[in-house]
């Protein structure tokens, strides 16, 4: 019911924006030109549109393949006829450069030292496109650093990409900052990932059984929906990247690193990929 309410509110908002766009463009918007093209080709344009997609309008009566695991979708969601899910893991360069190998060796040694001191290993990354929302990302990471700096039982590893230079001046003793890390390998040693909610990061966490604290960065992408599904599956928690205080961030982190039930639920997922070019079964059923 809550999902239906949110979708209704979103649909009303998008309808108002579409009407405003039509007025501003004097009726010559995308829908006008697509409709005219459909009419010339004898197609029922208005009857063929599916408007129940958040990011774009699609077409009815065609097969749909969602490039994400069925496992991540809501349990109550019932796919329509011709709708399938497929998961193809993000392609990574299997041959690291000497520099990347050196980074990993140093990072692995650091993690092992922290584990020996009984500290939880936290990993934070807001994705490769975090620069598109740079100010919000920098502000959040600074609050996260401040929060973890007060935790004697935690050690934070941050992968910040191009934002690294804005964060290096205020690192506490229990945090380290990198421009790049081998994420999937690193997650195998982590107790929690603080993520923006990108599909690749969520799948990486599920592959190795790491709970998530999701802070959607780009609110006009799939990240809020990914986060909501993750919470519904009880794989972690969701926060407000622009509003949560250091205290609120710290409270969520402490809750997750000590919650054995969530940790066990994530570890039991057994996320695997569908390798067929034309998948014929859901990920939930594949082995």
Mean pLDDT: 86
> Looking across the biggest beta sheet, what order are the strands in?
7-6-5-8-9-10
CATH architecture of the largest domain: 3-Layer(aba) Sandwich
Q: What's the N-to-C terminus distance?
A: 33 Å
Low-confidence stretches: 275-287
What is the CA-atom radius of gyration, in angstroms? Answer: 22 Å
Strand content: 5-15%
By CATH, the superfamily of the largest domain comes out as Glycogen Phosphorylase B
The shape is elongated
Largest sheet: 6 strands, parallel
Helix content: 40-55%
| Class computed from helices, strands and strand pairing | alpha/beta
Helix run count: 10
Spell the H/E element sequence: HHHEEEEHEHEEHEHEHEHH
How is the CATH topology of the largest domain named? Rossmann fold
Tell me the count of domains. 2
Number of strands: 10
CATH class of the largest domain: Alpha Beta
């Amino acid at each position: 019911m809550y999902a239906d309410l949110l979708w209704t509110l979103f649909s009303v908002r998008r309808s108002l924006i579409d009407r405003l766009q039509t007025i501003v463009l004097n009726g010559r918007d995308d829908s006008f030109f697509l409709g005219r093209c459909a009419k010339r080709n004898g197609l029922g344009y208005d009857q063929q549109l599916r408007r129940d997609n958040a990011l774009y309008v699609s077409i009815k009566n065609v097969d749909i393949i969602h490039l994400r695991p069925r496992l991540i979708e809501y349990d109550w969601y019932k796919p329509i006829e011709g709708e399938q899910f497929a998961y193809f893991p993000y392609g990574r360069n299997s041959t690291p450069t000497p520099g990347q190998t050196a980074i990993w060796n140093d990072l692995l040694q650091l993690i092992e030292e922290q584990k020996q001191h009984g500290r939880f290993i936290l990993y934070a990354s807001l994705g490769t496109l975090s620069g598109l929302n740079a100010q919000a990302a920098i502000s959040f990471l600074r609050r996260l650093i401040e929060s973890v700096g007060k935790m004697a039982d935690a050690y934070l590893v941050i992968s910040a990409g191009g934002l690294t230079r804005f964060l290096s001046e205020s690192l506490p003793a229990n945090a380290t900052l990198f421009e790049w890390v081998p994420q999937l390998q690193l997650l195998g040693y982590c107790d929690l990932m603080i993520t923006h909610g990108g599909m690749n990061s969520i799948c990486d966490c599920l592959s190795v059984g790491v709970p998530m604290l999701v802070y959607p960065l780009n609110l006009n992408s799939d990240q809020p929906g990914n986060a909501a599904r993750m919470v519904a599956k009880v794989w972690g928690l969701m926060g407000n990247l622009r509003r949560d205080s250091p205290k609120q961030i710290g409270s969520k982190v402490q809750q997750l690193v000590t919650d054995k039930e969530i940790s066990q639920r994530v570890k039991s997922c057994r996320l695997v990929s569908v390798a067929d070019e034309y998948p014929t079964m859901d990920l939930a059923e594949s082995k």
